TrEMBL record:
<dbReference type="InterPro" id="IPR036291">
    <property type="entry name" value="NAD(P)-bd_dom_sf"/>
</dbReference>
<dbReference type="GO" id="GO:0006633">
    <property type="term" value="P:fatty acid biosynthetic process"/>
</dbReference>
<keyword id="KW-0560">Oxidoreductase</keyword>
<protein>
    <submittedName>
        <fullName>CIC11C00000003571</fullName>
    </submittedName>
</protein>
<dbReference type="GO" id="GO:0048038">
    <property type="term" value="F:quinone binding"/>
</dbReference>
<dbReference type="Pfam" id="PF00106">
    <property type="entry name" value="adh_short"/>
</dbReference>
<dbReference type="GO" id="GO:0016616">
    <property type="term" value="F:oxidoreductase activity, acting on the CH-OH group of donors, NAD or NADP as acceptor"/>
</dbReference>
<dbReference type="InterPro" id="IPR002347">
    <property type="entry name" value="SDR_fam"/>
</dbReference>
<comment type="similarity">
    <text>Belongs to the short-chain dehydrogenases/reductases (SDR) family.</text>
</comment>
């Protein structure tokens, strides 16, 4: 079902975004990888599974600049590839590990811009072209990568700002799904702590853990299941289910 889809993935240079890029390319999708680190993107895109019908691309882009109204020289290339996408995966994120009084104002704004403002702007940019695709099967899709910290009562000291913004993604997911009324599916996956990621390596809290493979499998199920829309789906190693 994902073969032949054009998928735009942010945060694609490492962690969940990179793992999703590899899995979805293996399933036959054409991937546009978006991240800041061009060296990692160049190296990773060479390793993506590729057939003659797949032309993977990358865009080296600082999404915090997008949130601040600054358009780099390659902004047009970002827009061009986003407008071709059948699926947008908002995976880029920035975690904090400081108690609220110790956070700098700039640090808070960075977390806000990357974790929430950028996904809102990218969704806004993607929706018009997705709607032009019409009511085809499968319908276009937006997938937001949130966190178990945002909605399950799990509280980790030093992650208040991060948890708040990931909760904001859930509000975006549910409201936008209703607004689009089935013309574009919008869902959120809420991973537990993933030890293989940068956040998982740095976290010291007693948070439930999940393998990177389980997170990717959960995302694929959400993308493939046309009945799932406006849902919050935990990725915690348990059975496939929704929280709303």
């Amino acid at each position: 079902m994902l073969s032949g889809r054009n998928i735009f993935i942010t945060g694609a240079s490492r962690g969940i975004g990179l793992a999703l890029s590899n899995k979805l390319a293996l399933l036959g999708s054409t991937i546009t990888m978006v991240a800041r680190n061009e060296d990692l993107l160049v190296d990773n895109i060479r390793k993506l599974p590729t057939s003659k019908d797949q032309q993977h691309k990358y865009v080296s882009y600082d999404l915090m600049s997008l949130a601040r109204g600054v358009k780099p020289n390659n902004h047009g290339f970002l827009v061009e590839n986003l407008e071709k996408a059948n699926i947008l995966i908002n995976c880029a994120g920035l975690a904090t590990y400081k108690l609220m009084p110790k956070l700098t104002d700039d640090g808070i704004l960075d977390v806000v811009d990357l974790n929430l403002v950028a996904p809102i702007l990218l969704s806004k940019m993607a929706i018009p072209s997705m709607l032009k695709q019409g009511r085809r099967t499968p319908v276009p899709s937006i997938l937001n990568i949130s966190s178990l910290l945002s909605a399950t009562g799990t509280a980790v000291s030093g992650t208040s700002a991060y948890a708040a913004l990931k909760a904001g993604l859930l509000g975006l997911t549910e409201a936008l799904a209703k607004e689009l009324n089935g013309k574009i599916r919008v869902n959120a996956v809420l991973p537990a702590l993933v030890p293989e990621t940068d956040m998982g390596k740095n976290a010291s809290a007693n948070l439930p853990t999940v393998s990177l493979l389980d997170v990717v499998d959960t995302c694929v199920k959400v993308l493939e299941d046309e009945s799932v829309n406006g849902k919050f789906v935990p990725a915690d190693g348990g059975k496939f289910r929704t929280l709303n």
